[in-house]
Request: fold
Amino acid sequence: MTTSAELLNALKIDRNAAPPPSRKGLWIGLAVAGVVLVVGAVIALRAGKPVAVRTAEVVAIGSGGAASAAVLDASGYVVARRMATVSAKITGRVREVLIEEGQKVKEGQVLARLDPVDAEAQRALSASQLAASESQIASVQAQLTQAEADAARLATLVQQSLVSRAQYEQALAQRDTLRAQLATARRNAQVAAASLRIADNGVDNTVVRAPFDGVIIAKAAQPGEIVSPLSAGGGFTRTGIGTLVDMESLEVEVEVGEAYIGRVKPGMPTQTALNAYPDWKIPGKVIAIIPAADRGKATVKVRVSLDARGDPRIVPDMGARVSFLEEAAPQQRNETTGVLVPAAAIVRRGDKDVAFVVSGGKVVERPLVLGRTLGDDRQVLRGLSAGEQVVLEPPETLADGMRVTRAADDEEQQ
Reply:
């Protein structure tokens, strides 16, 4: 049996025994392992499949006297200064149409032909009248030759008193009459020749030709329809064959509010963005300010040129937005005014504005010093250089050093 002394000895605390293991070291080890795992995951993510992104090029502004900032934005439309509804000069039935929408034509090219039956009949009549007049000239000329010979012979005989003077005077009268008839016949022949030329023009008017180089944007008539330049249309009557536009004459027409028209000057530089191609900035300048205001809208029309006119992407009636740019002051023209970047490329990371530059297949995060807002773009004073490629609409997960690939390149490979 266990005695009471042994039980008391069992309850004693051994002061010399080793202390139990601490849990603090365990937590430190777990934390270090977690950090290692996170770092490894980030490294694996960056080394994994590249992120597909869209990019845009950084554009330099404000150097060498170029426009430095937009003083005004206005909306308008692309218009053609040289546009014509091509029609026949006469009324007639269409025999054939040789054009289609989108077709390029040269000046003088045949676009359509009308039925020439009436015009050719008129020409044949005029040709017959000219032939008859020429035949009459020949007949009168022969008679006049005979009359002049008779008058000369009688002149000799009357001097010898072999014939009466009355016979001689009658011969002279006959000669003068034939001379007058010959002059009349020649005039009639001239009239017949002029009538034939008019008839030739009538036949030529049945052929519709292009008045200038351009592109067909509308085909208005079909074979069998009646075309009349003097008619208002209706039924099967058309006023024209088609509409022709000179694409080299395209420009933008915008309406500027009266309160801001003072900021616009003829010849000042502009930058136009078409609604169909918002990322395409087309340089140009103010051609003219129309000296008339719209009372209802309180606006003034301004004509703006396009340096890229003739480009097939620009077509009439396209919507456009024009930025009127101010010229840098002479004392500022040698100063750096930064670069132009799409606003979609700039994001907030923490307490600073940054952009991600694509370099060597990876992105580099750049802090930016921003300037003015220029339409859909932002002026960047520091942080970027002209010609660099920046990521548009960078995702939240995009970080410095991550591998990327351009979305356009991915689509081409697929």
